[in-house]
Amino acid sequence: MFSSRLNWSQHPNRLSILLEEKRRARAPILDLTESNPTRVGLAYPQAEILAALAEPSGLRYEPTPRGLDSAREAVARHYHQVKLEDVLLTASTSEAYAFLFKLLTNPGDEILAPRPSYPLFEFLAGLESVQIRQYPLRYDGVWHLDFDALEKAITPRTRGIVVVNPNNPTGSFLKRAELARLDSLAAANGLAILSDEVFRDYAFDEDAERASTLVGDRQALTFSMSGLSKIAGLPQMKLGWIVASGPNRDKALDALELIADTYLSVATPVQLALPRLLEVSGSILQEIRQRTAANLARLRAAMQGSAATLLRTEGGWYAVLQVPRTRTEEEWTLKLLDESGVLVQPGFFFDFESEAFLVLSLLPEAATFAEGVSRLRSSL
Length: 380
Hints:
By secondary structure, the protein is of the alpha/beta class.
């Protein structure tokens, strides 16, 4: 009766079952997976945000498939070297992926995506009847693309390559040399590049070799995605965007406008508010930067001399620990939750190739994070 695109297992895993039992029993839990910035005690400029949403013209409906000029101009200014004409608004980065999959693929075509990385790609692709083929990131003290494996993953049905810059959860940025090689590879094979840059503003340090964005002159058709969810810590505002670069971008944007016109999903009030929201987002962004940097320092100090290794991270909201293979990742997470009341994510949630990795959010409040990390260290 229902589409085969929805044939995903909805059976809860052991960690989810145990977490639900703990919550029903009202057991205290130190949640080191929290990634919702509106739930971690940040000081939002509430008056300014609410004032931005109170624009009277938001009561009038004037559908604009690419997005209001004022909103798109604000996005262009955010990047400094982008024209309004290269920007198209979406309701979220997830919707941006859906639009781009519609633009680039036919049913059964393939998109390459990194491993480890964000676990939603296969679901987004499945809803478009598209297949995800993974290419690996490798770690040897720093993360890097495995170009040999990437090239071997390309088939006649491949239509695009996803990069997450910086990656979630590894926190690794593309380097300029990697970008040049990726750009050349995509152009030579007639592939588009889909660059997810939602965490680009959260680098932990400077690096002249880093490619912080793929916006700019490209050999391959390139789409850079971001939005208010991370830049302003406002996931509830539901506004994202696509910036197109490279050859055929005008034709691509015309087609994307047709797709967007079919849905008209971006709300007028948040579009009108976008210029002001981006202006006031600086204080939120800085607070999140300070929070994540301080928690990363706490984690680094706590893991020194322990049985765990903190993998290098360059940016984003997450950290990855490699822990002893005396237990599986699932067993580690169950032990931490059951015996210590600490919730972390296993690496297999993000398609790590081998055991044993744990993924922690760097967003929780300082006291929660410090206590959770202390208990984690004791369990190790």
